Amino acid sequence: MTETLPDEPNSTGSANSAEIIDQLQNLPRDERDDLIATMEMYSGPIPHPDILKGYQNLYPDAAKRIIENGLQESEHRRNLETKRQRRRGHLAYICLWGGLAITMLFLLLSFYLILHGHQIIGSVFAGTSFLALLGTVFDLIPKLTGNDDLHSDND
Known about the structure:
Layout: H1 17-26, H2 29-35, H3 49-58, H4 62-115, H5 119-145
């Protein structure tokens, strides 16, 4: 059907859904039934039961195999998510211990400089290394504990 609804709000022919619903409700029942199509949304690794029945009619063992495949897919996804979280945990420990080791190195270097008469530069090294450790920890906490992979670090 190529008819457009009356009183279109713009030239592209799109109207907001409230206007479309109002216009459909004003039509006679026979015309409304002809225009309204029912759309059923279904999501997931296992198809809708009606679709499964169709596959079962084509191949006697199809529904069972499709369900088993969907269950295996779900288990596989959970396994991948567990591995990803474990990897993020290992990365967090590596970053934390690496940052701590570098900070300790700078603190030892600053101690050495202070003992050999370079108090100002030794103090600067000590303060900078302490601030770098704090900055690293506070920067890594939200990145490593966050569970949102949809957004990049730039968002």
